[in-house]
Amino acid sequence: MIDIRKKLRKTFYFRTAVRVYKDQKIPQEDLDLILDAAWRSPSSVGLEGWRFVNLKNQAVKEELKAISWGATSQLETASDFILILAEKNARYDGQSMRQSLIRRGITDPEAIDARLKTYQSFQKVDMDMLTSPRVLFEWTARQTYIALGNMMTCAALLGIDSCPIEGFDHAKVNDILAKHGIISADKEGISCMLSLGYRLKDPKHPHTRKDRDQVITTFN
Predict the structure, then answer these.
(1) Which residue from 71, 88, 119, 128 puts its CA 20 to 30 A from 136's CA?
(2) Dist CA 216 CA 142 (whole Å)
(3) Is-above-0.85 flag for pTM?
C-alpha cells in the first residue's frame, strides 16, 4: 500500500520553479487532470470568478514574449501554457454572484436575497472591496491562486514540472488578449500565468525554505 504521506512529502520536495523545459508533451489525460484540479478548486463564496485558457496559438505567444520578462523561456519551451483569468466587477448585486447561488441549488428568491445581503455586508464592510474596481478585481484574482496551487501540486504528483508567472505587463497582456478575442476586457483580466512541462535539467540551487518553526507556530 502506498504511504500517501510519504508520497505527498516527496511531491512537495519535487516541485520547483522550472523555466526551461525539454521537448516532451504532457499526455492529454494528465493535462486534463491538472486542469480539472483548477476547475474543482474552492473559491470565496463559491463564486468561481475565473477562467483557465491553455494557450496554443504561436502568434499570440510571440506577442506575449515581448512584454513578459518572466515567461520568455517558458513560452518557448513549455508543453502547455495556461493563462489564468479573473472576473471583474464581481459585485454582490451582479449576475455572476446570483448565478453562483443558483448553480449550487439555491433557487428560492427569498433565500437568494438573504444570501446576497450577507455578501453585500461581506464586500462592503468586512473586506471593504467596493471602493474601486481594482480592489474588487484583486479579490477575484486572489481566488485564482487557490486553483494555481492545486494545479501545481497535481502536476507534481504526476511528475510534471511547472512555474507560476507574474513577471509581465498586465495592462499590455490584457490588451493583447482582448485584441485576439481571448478575453472581454470589461469582464475579465489576466491574474497570472502557469507553464507546464518536463524540466530540461535539475535546478542549480538547492530546494530551501526558512526553518519550519519560523513559519509554523501554535498559540494555545
Answers:
(1) 71
(2) 22
(3) yes
Per-residue pLDDT reduced to its tens digit, 128-140: 999 999 999 999 9
Q: Cell digits for 82?
A: 495556461
Of 188, 17, 201, nearest to 96 by C-alpha is 188
Alpha helices in 67-126 (DSSP H): 72-77, 95-103, 109-121
Phi, then psi, of 64 in degrees rounded to 5: -70, -35
Phi first, then psi, for residue 201 (nearest 5°) are -155, 165
Three-point CA angle 176, 179, 182, nearest 5°: 80
Q: What whole-number distance in Å separates Cα of residue 15 and Cα of residue 160?
A: 8
3-class SS of residue 37 = helix
Q: Determine whether 4 is exposed, middle or buried from the number of CB atoms within 10 Å of its CB (0-12, 13-18, 19+).
A: exposed
pLDDT digits (tens, 9 = 90+) for 42-85: 999 999 999 999 999 999 999 999 999 999 999 999 999 999 99
Cell numbers at 147, concatenated? 486553483
